[in-house]
Amino acid sequence: MPSEFALITRYFQRPTPSARLGIGDDAALITPSAGMELAISTDMLVVGTHFLPAADAEGLGWKTLAVNVSDLAAMGARPRWALLACALPEADETWLARFTQGFFACAEAFGVELIGGDTTRGARAFAVTILGEVPCGQALTRAGARAGDEIWVSGAPGQAALGLAHLQGKVALEEPQRSACLAALPRPQPRLALGLALRGLATAAIDVSDGLLADLSHILSASGLAARLTLDVEAVPTFAQHCFLAGGDDYELVFTAPSNRHEEVLALGEKLGLPLTCLGDCRPGPAGFLDVRTRAGEPVAFSTLGYDHFA
Ligand code: ADP
Ligand code: MG
Hints:
single chain, alpha+beta, CATH 3.30.1330.10, Phosphoribosyl-aminoimidazole Synthetase, Chain A, domain 2, 2 domains, 9 helices, 10 strands, globular, binds adenosine-5'-diphosphate, binds magnesium ion
């Protein structure tokens, strides 16, 4: 049975050229770049709550880091360093090799170096703390939306929720939708290129982890605004509509931008090869209030805004 330290060196220690000191001491040392402020975030995945005991280790490794990269993308910050605290039920090296393969694939894809962490025995759980950089004063917060700003979403939210429903036998998806939805769940693609390009263009941004409406309502509450959304839902089955509006785990970005920059946002989507859809606009009104309509002007009823761990 390898020791805790052997596991750390074997599976977690990789070169960290952009840290002054990485794994192996009591703390890591980093020097932030001049003119940048640090954006710091943490996100945790726990067995039974965020993933099933039998979840594929490689996908889980990817997702553990990807959800944190997504948080920085939503701030317009470039991720640079991460710390990984993990609880493992046993020193299962086959499992760890796969987990770290997924984790470091994500780290390489988004330019993150693992500079420290903690390893302990317990029910499987992973907490990443991520550190990134953003030019001072340019971070995209939730509170910057203004009345009249348009509301945009990237990609196709709802895919992860549809994929999960398919696995649970609640819907039967057909190709090509099935593959897209099943891939969205274990391997979310953080919208980092988009988040970075939105600096100076978006007025507020958030990533969709709990559900489109739930996360949009955080922007609206923080900005003291209401919103009117107009959706093309007539052609969409009710269940897919629900996944689009309230499904979690997609890690698309929802953002607001001034209406006179509509064409610039569309051009950005073209450039990134990522669909960006205008859903509606922000209006003065009760903070967080959402008026969702069909193209024909009919109100769209929704039973929940999204996922809440304690509701
Ligand atoms: P300490 O006893 O000072 O907390 P540890 O023995 O927990 O130190 O960890 C030794 C070194 O290995 C530290 O630099 C720590 O940051 C790093 N480390 C421990 N676990 C992990 C992990 N899962 N991923 C990355 N680095 C880790
Ligand atoms: Mg420790």
